[in-house]
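task queued by scheduler; priority normal; single chain, no ligands, no partner chains; default sampling; output format set to C-alpha cells
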Amino acid sequence: MDVKQHAASKLVSAEQAMRRIKRGSRVFIGTGCGEPQHLIHAMVRNQALQDIMIYQMLSSTLAPYVDDSSFLRRFYLKLFFISVSMRKAAFEGRIDYIPAYLSQIPRLFTSQRIGLDVALIQVSPPDSFGYCSLGVSVDITRAGMDSARLVIAQVNPRMPRTWGDSFVHVDEIDVLVEHEEPLVEMNPGNLDEEVARRIGHYVSQLVDDGATLQIGFGRVPDAILRYLDNKRDLGIHTQVITDGFLSLLESKVITNRRKSLLPGRVVASLCMGSDRLYRYVDNNPMFYFRSSEFVNDPTVIARNDQLISISSALEVDLTGQVCSDSMGYLFYSGIGDQVDFLRGSAMSRGGFSIIALPSTAQNGNVSRIVSHLSEGAGVATTRGDINFVVTEYGVAELQGKGIYQRVMELAQIAHPRFREQLIAAAKQHRYIFADQLPPSREDLLFLEDYKSTLKLKNGKTVEFRPLLPSDEFSYRNFFYSLQEKTIYLRFFHNKRLFPHEIIQRQWSSIDYRKNISIVGLAQHGGHKEMIAIGSYAMDTETHAEVAFVVREDFQGMGIASCLLEALEIIAKENGFQGFIASVLHENTPMIRVFKKRYPHLRKRREEGGELALLMDFSKPSD
C-alpha cells in the first residue's frame, strides 16, 4: 500500500508530529530495538515540549540526553527495565524505575493505572490492505498504543514484518511519519569463555531433547545457547529472541515440533539483536509474536509441557532468595520476565526453572552466592520459587529442600575460595549444624568424568555420580529405606542409626581419590532418589577396600556390577592396583558380582566367618 496515496492526510514530518504533543503529556515509547529513533530525536529537539512524562521498557536512544540538565528539566523518564546504556543514569538517580512483572505491564496501561496521552511507535510500511507490522517490538507496545489518545507512528521500510499479533491498521494510527533508518542493534555482551563453557555444560545436562525453552536476555542465558547444539527438537516460548538463537535455528536443533502449545512456532514478544537477526525473522512464519500479557502469562506458559526457564541473577543467598534488579540500593536492570517464567515453568508438566550465574563478580573478588543479600537488594524471586541454580562449579537443586540442604547445595557451587566463609556465616545464622564440614575447596569439575548411566531392562534409567556433602539427607534416607537383612550383609551387624555425626565422619575422609563413593539415582515421581551406593577407601598403597549396597527392589539388575566397574576405573586413575573386600560367606550375590568381574580373585577366611577377597586389576577377565 502506498502511504502517500491511501493515508496522505495522516502523513506529516516528524517536527509537525511533535507539535501535536501537549505540555504535561504522558508519552509511551516503543520498546528496545523497535523504538522510533527519528521521532525521539524530533521530540527532544522541540523546545516547546515541557514537563513530559516518558514511559518505556527498554530505552537506548534517549541515553545520550540524560546527562543534559536541560533535558532532565523538560522530560521525566520512567522505565520498566534499565538497559546497559541507562545504568549510569539510574545509579545517579536521573531516571525512575517502575518494578513490575512484564505480564502485568499491559494491564497498567489498559486499566489507566498508568494513563497515556501519546504513543510513539515504529511500524513497517502498510501492505495492500493497509496493515503495518510492529515488527520486532510487540511486547507492551500493543497495549501502550491501544491505551494512548494519540498514536504517532514512524514508518520505516527496514522494520521487519512479523507474524502473529503484530499487525496494526493505518486506521488505528493518528499520525504517520515516513523515515528510513537502521533499527537499534543490541548485544547482550560477552561472558568469559571458560565460565560460559562450564555453565553451558551443566545446563545442558538438565535440558532434555524436546524441551521448550525460555531464555532470558543477558550475557549468561545468551552464552548458554551455544552449548545446547547437541540437543534435538527444542522448542521456544520466550520473551525475547536474540542472535544466540540463530545457530540453533539454522542447524535445526530448534524445530518446535514437540511443543504442546503452538507447535511448529517460536513464540516471542520482541526481538533484540543484529540486522542479520531482523532479516531472519522478517516475514518468517516460524515466528509468532504476541504481546507480553500472552507470552508472559504464567498460565499460558504452563500450557507448554517440559517448559524450562533459563534466566540469570546478580546474587543468590544461601536460603534461595534471588536478586536480579539491583546492586544493593542501585537499580541495575529490572524484574522483567523472570518471575513470570519461573512460576509458569513450575506449573508446566515436566517443567522447571534454572537460575544460571557466574560464581563471582568484580574480577573474582566478590561471590555471587552470598550468606545474605546485599543491603538494599530487592528480592525478585522468593525462596519458594527457586528450583535449580547453576554456576561454573555445578548444579544446586533447591526445590522442596530445607535451609540446611540449600546451604550445602549452594556453598558447593560457590567459588572454592568463598566456600568456607559461607559455611561459617551459615553457622552464625543457625542454618546448619555447628560441626558441619565445608565443601572441598578443590575445583571438582573432574568429577563430571565419573558420571554414567545404566538403562535397566524395565525401562528405567539409573544415573551414577560421586556422593557430595549436600547428599546427607538423601544418603540417610537411603539407608533407612533398606531392609534389616541388607544392612546386616553390608555392615555385619544390625546397624539401626545413621545420625549426622556418623555421616560427618565419612565426609571428612572423602577426597575423591583415595576415598570415594558413587551413588545410583533413579527417577521417582518428580525427583531422583538414591537407590545404590558403592565406595572404596585406601587400605594399602596399592589396594583399596571396596563395598556396595543396592536397594532390594533394584537388586539383580546389574547395578552392583556397574558400580564396581565405575569404581575400578577411578581407582586405576588414582594409582591403585586392586581391591580388597570383606564379605559374609552367606552373601553369595555380592561374591558372585566380584567373581564375575575378577574370576582370579583370592579368598581368605577371617575371624568371625568373614571372607576377605583380594582382587587385582591386572589379572585378565574371562
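post-processing summary
- DSSP finds 21 helices and 34 strands in the chain.
- The mean pLDDT is 92.
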